[in-house]
Amino acid sequence: MNSEQLSGRSEAPGFGSKGKWYEKGGFLAEVASRYLQVNGTDVTEAQSYLLLMLGSTLFVDKSRDRVRPVVNLFLDELEEIDQYSWASGTLAWLYRCLGQASRAGARGVAGCLTLLQCWIYEYFPGFRPSHFEPPVVGPDEAWASRWIGQPATGSVADPSVRLAFYRRALDSLTPSDVSWTPFHQRPHQAVRRSLYTGVIRFADIGEFYDPARCLRQFGYRQMVPPPPSRPQRADRPEAPGGYVIRIPESFDAAWDALLSHMVHIDMYSQPWRRYPYETTVDYLDWFVAHSHCRVLQDDGDADRLVDSAAVRFDH
């Protein structure tokens, strides 16, 4: 039995009365039932388990109960599972989901939100669960396990008030409120591919990854980055359903090129000397000219919205 049958793509005998293949994926519950069958082979059970885990953790979509068909492509040859870069694939899928969620017509966000939430906790201590000091994890433990069982504190009935609060909190951040190198002073020494510059992919989804735009996370002084790479096609309409980014497969060759995994000191900048948020003298002027420096407009609406409610946050 192949992985397509595991997720319901074929009318496999005994798969279930529905036996359907949905355009956007098979139901996770049906995959789980296949995994629990007592007459399954070791290969079938392994494929079912992996499909269930990948569909419910790393490559989650907004349906919440289906797994994308493309995941099947990586499971037919189990001996090749450890040859894939699951981390970069997860990040590429999350980048695409965040891009779609940024559209005005979006009503939700997909992707590995556990990764996003842990990233926020690591780099922005002010948004961590209150009164909680994350423990030190062992060498064989997942770093994200530091945040297990720590729900966010503070509540408010009106989501718009809570949203306004966090927007104002983001606008109030100062450089000292950010943990610039939470993992290691030179994280790329432990994970060399983190300095890769190029395209990361999950199946047919490609996204650009450029550490030159966040050099302070690697212990370097931030400089004005080079112009971004251009995709073959980019459609970013108001409706997220029409969001399309296409990148030629020729860009993928950089993944195996040594120079794509190195920081060129003469091209970028030197390590910081006094504080971890150092920049070159021209960077801030460039940043102001090319970025949205504030989330909120300067019209006072958010302040009035927040102050009009009795809001208590323990952050």
TrEMBL record:
Annotated GO biological process: meristem maintenance
Residues in Aminotransferase-like plant mobile domain copies: 40-287
Domain of life according to the entry: Eukaryota
Residues annotated as transmembrane: none
A Pfam family it matches: PMD
PANTHER family for the chain: PROTEIN MAIN-LIKE 2, PROTEIN MAINTENANCE OF MERISTEMS-LIKE
Protein name per UniProt: Aminotransferase-like plant mobile domain-containing protein
Species classification: Eukaryota, Viridiplantae, Streptophyta, Embryophyta, Tracheophyta
